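Postdoc handover notes: sequence design on the structure in folder B. Input tokens:
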């Protein structure tokens, strides 16, 4: 597959699964509609030129588009003749517009050896507020997205398939404010299948260890309070069925809409800068931006169903060694590579956790859980003092749910994401299609 084709599927998928505004100043005028779409994309850093458009009832059909990124002025525009169909276009009470759905036909490409296809691409609950487009409009542009099935094949045989990809967002509105104040999102990638048996150059030992196919899924939840800037990514799970699940959580404070707008402006200003100028920008504006953000916590957890033993057996067999001897060698290598700067106590916790896990692979847990959020600028300035950082961030590691010296906090759930209590009390989720769409 050529780089150009890879870029094609990447950008088309981005158009389908990321916010795509959907209506013009006059719902009966397709050209005015597309002008409005382009204006909103400009706020997000894109320049969009659409092809010919037609309108039948409340459906607008567009024949292709070209897109360029403001931060990459020297790059050639991406151009495609893919057909975009906006359905259920209607005017809203605030002078904006909504669309029930945007659909994109099946995307296909590749060559005689490798090919790909992505079907069922659709967005739902599209909303374009009236007035001048803002960054907030881009965030609120889409309520749901879906795609699938996806297939990547080699000479007609599927190597990777995905049944479905879905993403949904719920927007919260404080009191009677027309602007959103919070977002709760979920993402799910279901029915992932890796065909090991037919993959080129797959070692027979790998198939013997893992079987002909490996199946799995990906799930994520997130919440963002735009007023306080509390952002939480929770229950981010990557599951390989009957093998293992890798779970992660992340909490950041201070990530307000103003910070996002500053980051976007920095990206635009960096276009055409020399490396020296970009370095200067990062040293000044970048540090000022980091000073507004705080790390609330991070956790990673591996729940093992059979993966570790399969990998240990596979590698030891390939090296002609016994599993116990190979495992002991791994523990010795770890002890040799751990940096002294981390301190004897923390290095000891790492070695104990790894030894416990390798002896009986059940779970491995690593967490950063400071008592209060730690400013990112402070983290940058403390990078040269790792032992102080370990204490400041309350870094812990444990295996098989056994405490290695410090209590390991439970993984943060979406309901436990940091939010402003007063704002949460006043906030309610609002159905945009009912409250903002005119009759």
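Designed sequence:
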């Amino acid at each position: 597959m050529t780089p150009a084709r890879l870029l094609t599927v990447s950008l088309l998928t981005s158009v389908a699964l990321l916010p795509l505004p959907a209506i013009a100043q006059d719902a009966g005028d397709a050209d005015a509609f597309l002008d409005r779409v382009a204006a909103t994309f400009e706020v997000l850093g894109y320049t969009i030129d659409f092809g010919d458009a037609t309108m039948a009832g409340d459906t607008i059909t567009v024949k292709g588009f070209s897109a360029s990124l403001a931060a990459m002025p020297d790059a050639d525009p991406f151009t495609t003749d893919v057909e975009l169909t906006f359905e259920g276009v209607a005017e809203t009470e605030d002078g904006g517009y909504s669309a029930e759905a945007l659909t994109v036909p099946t995307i296909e490409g590749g060559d005689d050896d490798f090919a790909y296809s992505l079907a069922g691409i659709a967005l739902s609950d599209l909303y374009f507020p009236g007035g001048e487009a803002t960054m907030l409009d881009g965030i609120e542009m889409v309520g749901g997205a879906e795609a699938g099935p996806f297939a990547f094949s080699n000479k007609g045989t599927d190597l990777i398939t995905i049944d479905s990809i879905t993403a949904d967002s719920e927007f919260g509105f404080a009191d009677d404010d027309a602007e959103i104040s919070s977002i709760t999102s979920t993402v799910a990638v279901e029915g992932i299948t890796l065909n090991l048996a037919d993959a080129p150059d797959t070692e027979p030992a790998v198939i013997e260890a893992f079987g002909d196919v490996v199946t799995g899924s990906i799930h994520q939840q997130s919440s963002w309070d735009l007023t306080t800037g509390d952002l939480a990514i929770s229950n981010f799970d990557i599951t390989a069925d009957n093998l293992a699940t890798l779970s992660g959580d992340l909490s950041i404070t201070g990530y307000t809409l103003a910070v996002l707008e500053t980051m976007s402006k920095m990206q635009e200003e960096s276009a055409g800068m020399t490396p020296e100028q970009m370095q200067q920008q990062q040293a000044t504006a970048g540090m000022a931006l980091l000073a507004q953000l705080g790390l609330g916590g991070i956790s990673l957890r591996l729940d093992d169903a059979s993966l570790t033993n399969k990998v240990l057996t596979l590698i030891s067999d390939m090296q002609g060694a016994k599993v116990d001897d190979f495992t002991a060698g791994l523990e010795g290598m770890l002890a040799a590579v751990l940096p002294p700067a981390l301190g004897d106590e923390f290095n000891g916790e790492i070695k104990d956790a790894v030894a416990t896990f390798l002896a009986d692979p059940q779970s491995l847990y690593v967490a950063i859980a400071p008592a209060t959020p730690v400013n990112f600028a402070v983290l940058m300035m403390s990078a040269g003092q790792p032992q102080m950082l370990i204490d400041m961030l309350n870094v812990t590691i444990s295996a098989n749910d056994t405490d290695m010296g410090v209590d390991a906090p439970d993984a943060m759930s979406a309901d436990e994401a940091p939010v402003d209590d007063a704002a949460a009390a006043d906030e309610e989720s609002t159905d945009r299609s009912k409250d903002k769409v005119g009759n």
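Context for whoever picks this up: The two ends are 48 Å apart (CA to CA). Don't rerun without checking with the PI first.
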